[in-house]
Design brief:
The chain is α+β, with helices and mostly antiparallel strands. The protein contains 22 helices and nine strands. The chain folds into three domains: 88 residues; 209 residues, no CATH class; 234 residues, endopeptidase fold (from Nostoc punctiforme) (Alpha-Beta Complex), CATH 3.90.1720.10. Strands 4-3-2-1-5-8-9 form a seven-stranded antiparallel sheet. Helix 1 packs antiparallel against helix 2 and helix 15 crosses helix 16. The chain is elongated.
Length: 568
Amino acid sequence: MVMWLLIIAGALGLSAFFILMFRVLYPNHRRVATALSMLSFLPLGLSVLEHRRLVADGVHQVEGALHGHVPHVVALVALLLVGYLVRVVFPDAPSPAAGMSEEELEARLHQDLDLLRYLMDRLAFASEAIIHSELIADPDAAPTAEEDQALRTLWANYVEASVEIDALKLEHRGFQRIPWKTKPHAEAFLIAFGAFVAQYRAELEVTAAVRGNNRVITTFNDPNPRADLPEDSYSAIQARQMAPENLVKLNAGRAYLKLVKGRLDHRPQIVVRVRAMLHDIQDTALNDPMAVVRNPLHAFEKVLLDAWFPIQKGAAVGVSYLRTTNRRYFISHEVAGEVSSRLEPGDIMLERREWHLTNLGIPGYWTHAALYLGTLDTLDAFFADLPELGGASARDYLAERWPEAIAAMAEPGENGFPLAVIEALRPGVVLTSLEASGSCDSLGVLRPRIDRAAKLRAVVDALEHFGKPYDYNFDFTSDDSLVCSELIYKAFHACPDITLEPEMTNGRLLLSPNQMAMKFDAELERDDRQLDFGLFLDGTGIDEVHERTAEELRKAYERPKWHVVFAD
């Protein structure tokens, strides 16, 4: 009796599915299928009750809590699976024929079939532009500003094409409401399924092409206000592409296409193209079966990183306050301010502060970098008569582009010192005084060997990031938040004569202040060196500051992290 009840439950569930699949009893097939699906749970429940009665009467013996209910669990899972398949394959969507006469529907479907061909071509072109782009060839390469913008444009073009074909797909997903034996039903299905297959294949190919390229993925995920793209647009498309229901839609749609093929003889090109794309998807699954595993793992990894980020940020903020001594820094405000006459806008400041716990997580001796801008008077004098200013003063030229930053520089900073440095600190990308930034234990200054026009461009590009938050995720490829050395990299990003090359460190593209010092050391004796010596103030005690040479600065990066402990 129990087994017969389970068989009846399964038969009712399968009947509901096939009534929907083959549109039996149309136009009442949905109501009938829903009723049968709900009715299937009745014999399932009766079988459970009958099983318990037999156990109580001693007819059945149970060795465990679930041992005797295995058939019921299997039947329940099967019925739930049927319900899931019905929801995925036959969504409760409005009919594309709603409110249309037969003539209007026929004309609309003819138009949308032509539109489908066009959007397929457009999406294929946009995806192939990414797949075959040289910009994604080297995952460790640091792109120029122009290359970075080109990547954003490629992604914006792809998303626009994907959104348009997605709209067409959604518009016709209620195709099942059109009478099954009619040509419009088959055409509406072809539009919805063809758009879905084209979108799925493009997403599969694009995600495979950029897999493991964190630089490109981060660029794609960055918000792009110009293209109206929100943050994490790539991750959203990746997650949609790997939704489990897509595999159901692919296989059910493939079978359904065979059923309605006879009513699509007037559109052979689209049918052949959809089948070819299905074949490509199948080849990808056979040749690289892990493709359907890696992408969801990457998406899952991002979920974990997003969950971990608040903890990481909280820890980083907490550690940044920890300093194992109460003494002031060896270089005082006054000593730091005295070197202003020896600095030029665009100079790179390398700084070291001892006894900070954050030094443990930063590679090398130099643990902070800042960019010297100079005061507004200094900027006016240094860039005077520069043709790029068009006759304006430097402050007026910069105020047109970054009014908030220049307005801030017009006011005195902390302790009344003028603002002359831009750097990324715990509060974000801020303007500080030379006296405040230069008050550290060791200060090295590197001067880029570029002309005044290029230095003006570096100042402009650095001010572009004024006010952005500090990047506690230490993601060097993102523009929405920055770390200290990333600000220097972004400032000279568009300058071909200064090549600062980030390196992959623990899966992230990073450029440490110490790497800048290593570059200075490696190129110092070359005629084509890109960085000159500015100065080196080396503190050994309170008010004990020694001015060192270029030779001494070039090897300072080799000092141990706890230099003051081992110093003579």
